[in-house]
Task: inverse folding
């Protein structure tokens, strides 16, 4: 893989955000994936601050691959905080546009599988409002995969019908979430069924045309049904197959390394960079 297509989610490095950007710039990669909280929260960044951040990243020889926010804190299928979440989403789209990436990656909640569920209508109406704002400012919300199978995400995209709703493809989440959902329901985890329903790699065939950003992350589910994120290339994801399918779908964007656990995040993420370079 061309190093120019590799990015790192810098808040995972466990250090000052600006120092993290400098560090990964030294690794010779093309992008940084920025979480829009803490010092990079929309409400703390003026228009000038946003321009300065873009220039700072460019000075390290990189661009911003996408921003990330809503890592499970928001569920647009629920009534609670529904309107406030929509307004927050609009501010995040404005930030993505100002940072010149135009992509905001987000978990938008757990979408109901049945369209008759009132939660489905809430998700559709919320995403329609968010998408309309995205179209007006020149940015999209890229739904991060995980809580629902790819076919459900595609149904939402086609239902709303806006180019401002796209996909942030995280294959590891499609390993993790079936195990998590089985545990919540008090059910035994069935690997074969989970792979058929959630299609961690083969789901590209369903969603490839909508993918604008990817998370490079790996995971397994242990014998006791507990999910575990693992270093890139050591889990269940067939990265050669996954990237090949994305190539076939016409994807030319970033693969942003996300490493949310582990005692040595810098070492794990650097190793992940080297792993992607071998693909």
Result:
């Amino acid at each position: 893989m061309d190093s120019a297509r590799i990015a790192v989610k810098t808040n995972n490095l466990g250090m000052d955000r600006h120092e993290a950007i400098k560090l990964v710039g030294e690794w010779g990669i093309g992008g940084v994936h920025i979480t829009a909280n803490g010092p990079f929260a929309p409400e703390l960044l003026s228009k000038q601050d946003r321009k300065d951040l873009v220039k700072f990243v460019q000075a390290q020889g990189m661009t911003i691959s996408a921003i990330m926010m809503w890592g499970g804190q928001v569920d647009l299928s629920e009534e609670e905080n529904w309107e406030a979440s929509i307004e927050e989403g609009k501010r995040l789209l404005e930030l993505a546009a100002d940072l010149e990436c135009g992509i905001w990656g987000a978990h938008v909640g757990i979408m109901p599988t049945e369209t008759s569920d009132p939660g489905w209508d809430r998700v559709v109406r919320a995403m329609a409002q968010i998408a309309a704002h995205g179209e007006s400012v020149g940015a999209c919300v890229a739904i991060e995969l995980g809580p629902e199978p790819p076919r459900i995400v595609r149904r939402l995209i086609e239902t709303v019908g806006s180019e401002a709703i796209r996909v942030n493809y995280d294959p590891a989440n499609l390993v993790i979430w079936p195990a998590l959902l089985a545990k919540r329901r008090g059910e035994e985890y069935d690997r074969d069924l989970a792979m058929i329903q959630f299609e961690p790699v083969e789901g590209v065939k369903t969603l490839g045309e909508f993918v604008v950003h990817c998370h490079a992350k790996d995971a397994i589910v242990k014998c006791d049904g507990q999910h575990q994120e693992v270093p890139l290339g050591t889990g269940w994801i067939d990265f050669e197959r996954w990237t090949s399918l994305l190539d076939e779908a016409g994807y030319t964007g970033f693969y942003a390394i996300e490493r949310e656990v582990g005692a040595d995040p810098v070492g794990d993420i650097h190793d992940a960079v080297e792993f992607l370079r071998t693909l």
